[in-house]
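Illustration: Glyoxal oxidase.
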Amino acid sequence: RGGAPMSRATDSKSHHKTHSKNHLRRDLQHSNILLRAVTSLGPVDSWEVLIENAGVSAMHMTLAHTNKVIMFDRTDFGASQIRLADGFCRRDPLDKALHVDCWAHSIELDIATKTIRALTVRTDTWCSSGAWLAGGNLTQTGGWNDGGRVVRTIGGGPTDDWHELPNSLAVPRWYSSDQVLPDQRVIVVGGRRQFNYEFVPKAAAGEGAIDFPFLAETNDPGIENNLYPFTHLSPDGNLFVFANQKSILLNYHTGATVRTFPPLAGGPRNYPSSGSSVLLPISAATGYKTAEVMICGGAPPGSYHNVIQGIFASALDTCGRLVITDPNPQWVVSVMPSARVMGDMLILPTSEILIINGAQRGTAGWELAREPNFAPVLYDPVTNRFQVMSPSTIPRLYHSTANVMPDGSILVGGSNPNSGYEFTGALFATELRIERYNPYYLARGYDDRRPEIIAISSSEPGYGVTFTVTFALPVAAEAPNAVAWHLYAPPFTTHTFSQNQRMLVLASTQPVVAATRRSTTARAAVGNDIKLNEFIAIVAAPPNAILAPSGWYLLTAINQGTPSPSWWIHIG
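Result:
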């Protein structure tokens, strides 16, 4: 496993059907992903506190293509610990905490300089959702109180700030999910007491919400367990929607259910039982036709009622995988090393899955969880193995988030299981620290095989277009007879679901040697190999907007399982 740190590794207690496992193994192997050879590098992942006080708690987090991270919580929390710029104060008679509020509830973090800029959000963004569009602007929808029907936008530029469009949603959206579509609309699905969906922007004035009976069918009265439904855009152009324990394939144009999938056993997986979900990487090796969803964690039936009574049952310790493109798909269940509710699932540059944050008992909600799950878990979709990684020391419970950064590190923030800012006296205080988790592949021991992208012939390739990538490897590295190219859409993350996250394994040619040169990067400064071989590979962009809706993506070279720092490219 290439020295991936391991304090405990487990095989799944139940195995994938042979055809499902072979599907993914064949996809990845044909895409030139080499499994890392076993070494004895030892535990090499690490944690560090990047920001001691971000000013706000990162209930929502997303990465812009300008390498700025936008974070926000909610306006009705009261005074944060960072003031709005230029002495500005927000005046809102509907605010539940401060009618005159001079404090910021949104920030922008420059990950290169570690500097923070206060942003001005005017309406309540509590438990809202978002998606990035082609032009590099975030569309952000809903919230609570005066924010329920608001659409907000923001770019990633040095002076960009929130622009708000009141009454732009047909109905209030609270705990809904956003999915960007091939035509650059965003479908906004569900929300509290909203068994429907709608589109942003509207095709015509007065366009309303569209009934979605599936959400009513998956609603547990008095509990819900179907909020923040998991949505994934399928390669056939339909929308996979999972709520509670059930899932369907939705033709969002007509409102028709195309397919109904078997239920996932064990218990509810959506808010407030709050598991998480990813669409596993889709590969060019099968013509991008095989798609598989993975869902992990959640809470047993009755857990929310129990926590109200002070009974904190163990969370679910299972994951389910479903090949949604198979003619007769069935959930295949694996067992994690520990139970987890409110965990986040991220696709790493290597195509492995990181499960991070959350608790081992209880549910989402104010003070409704116990036993923070400090240790992230690494999951390999090819071998179906979990590995427990090095733990943090900071609880990350309700309203915590995590995002993958361009260098492959993980930014971790948030956690506020309280009804306001509570910095002292609470069982789990409001958390303003931002951590960086460095996965094993960032350790210096991997530098002798780490690729480094030098140039890309087109930073904005059209669909189906090939482009040339020049990359370097240390001379000491083995000749790269196989290098994989992973294309990653950074998500909007909140409430355990990274909306719009997806990865494609692109088609490419075998690299050819172009030149040898001396490194001018930090590799030389740390005493590693300084003589580099340059190579050229031809890479094919995704063929259409169904697979990759137009926008900014991170491109990563993978050599012997080790990722390069990623480059931004614009697809479509």
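Reading the tokens back as a structure: The first strand starts at residue 8 and ends at 11.
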